Amino acid sequence: MQSVNRRTLLKGVAGLSAAGVLAGCTGGQEDNTVADTLRVAAPTIALPQEPHGAEKFRELHGVELERESVSGAPSDIVSLFVAGDGQDRFDALWDNGGLDDNGMEDLLREEGVIQPIDKSEISNWNALHPDYKEGGIYSGTLRYPTDDGMELVAVPSVRNVDSVAYVESRAPEPDSFGVLFDNDEFMGQTAIVDDYSVTPMLCALYMNSAGLADIEKPNNMTEDEIETVIDFLIERKQAGQFKTIWQSFQDSVNLLVNEEVAYMYTFESAVIAAQDQGADVGYPPLPETGGMPWADNWLMTQGAVDRGREGAFYELADWALSDVHGADMIQTRGYLSGIQSDRIVDYVEDHPEDYDVDRIRDMIERKNERYEVSSQWARLNVAPDNLSTYQDEWQRFLNA
């Protein structure tokens, strides 16, 4: 466990009352849910997707999912579950994009919030993608280090590697995140996201590749390195590089559909949404900097164990590692699930009435190309060691 991370995440938690830590927390509520209901703290992307969705999930697994959206920020999650009433309210928690440098899972396990996963209870565990196994790029996201080795604490559900979206009619294919940050030809025509854990890291990757900096771990920077990156970002902002710093998913889709930018960082799901509206948008591999891998996972709370809902959690885990979930996720959102990609292709080929088979084959092929050039230090890290400095420096950039 990284002590700086722990102190940062716990900052402000001590002294908070057990109820009302986050907006919408009620605390002390009576538990009236039935045994086959699983209460989950998660975004909508965490749920079973179309074309099969929640109805098919209920039919196959006999579990009703009750979802409540909560902040995915590590400090908010810790507040909710360590000092707040998260254990009373939720049986499962969605891990928002952290990999093996993310201290949130470490702290939640140490505090007894999340419980170990018994993979023998998951019939689809053999479908797990090799990247999640020991030594794989996602191996750390499922495991918690202990004195006796590694303990399994998460079940994968969604993964991807992010790139730069570009409007093909306006700009050539990018090969680096540098087209966002240092691009005089497209001054005022690039867009970045308002996220301290993403934009500084992508900029650091570019600065390393361009010889503008020597940052050892772009996804877990020292205080001096963060300041160096933010200084550069402020310089580019004041030069007029960025058309906008987007915040909402829909804003990013609109920027592409309306061709307001040439290049932008956004999620592949936004690219899919823009393409579905007729936008001519690409999302290529980036050989100069590599893309940004991330993974979202399900965690089981102690509350689920206390309420006897472990069985319902493992039904959700089986769905997360099922062929149908993998096919639905890439069809609807453009993301891969945690299973072997060949299984997804085989499933959609066997069910062509439900899926755009050629498009899915093409997406998986292009994803594999992005994975091949992804960098170890481009892996998303939502809880870096110097979290407070990241947040303070990002605010300095926004205020500049």
Question: Can you lay out the helices and strands and say which pair or pack?
Answer:
Layout: H1 3-10, E1 37-41, H2 53-61, E2 64-68, H3 74-83, H4 86-89, E3 92-95, H5 103-110, H6 139-142, E4 143-146, E5 149-152, E6 155-162, E7 164-167, H7 178-181, E8 190-193, H8 199-209, H9 223-239, E9 242-246, H10 249-257, E10 263-265, H11 268-276, E11 281-282, E12 292-300, H12 302-306, H13 310-320, H14 323-332, H15 341-350, H16 357-372, H17 387-399
Parallel strand pairs: 1-2, 1-3, 8-9, 8-10
Antiparallel strand pairs: 3-12, 4-5, 6-12, 7-10, 7-11
Helix pairs in contact: 8-9, 9-17, 10-11, 14-15, 15-16
Number of distinct helices: 17
Mean pLDDT: 88
Q: How many DSSP-defined strands?
A: 12
- Shape by Cα distribution: globular
What characteristics describe this protein?
alpha/beta, 5-stranded mixed sheet, 12 strands
Can you characterise this structure?
This protein is α/β, with parallel strands linked by helices and 400 residues long. It is 40% helix and 14% strand. The protein has helices spanning 3-10, 53-61, 74-83, 86-89, 103-110, 139-142, 178-181, 199-209, 223-239, 249-257, 268-276, 302-306, 310-320, 323-332, 341-350, 357-372, 387-399, and strands spanning 37-41, 64-68, 92-95, 143-146, 149-152, 155-162, 164-167, 190-193, 242-246, 263-265, 281-282, 292-300. The longest helix is centred in the middle third of the chain and has 17 residues, at 223-239. The radius of gyration is 21 Å and the shape is globular. The protein starts with a helix and ends with a helix.
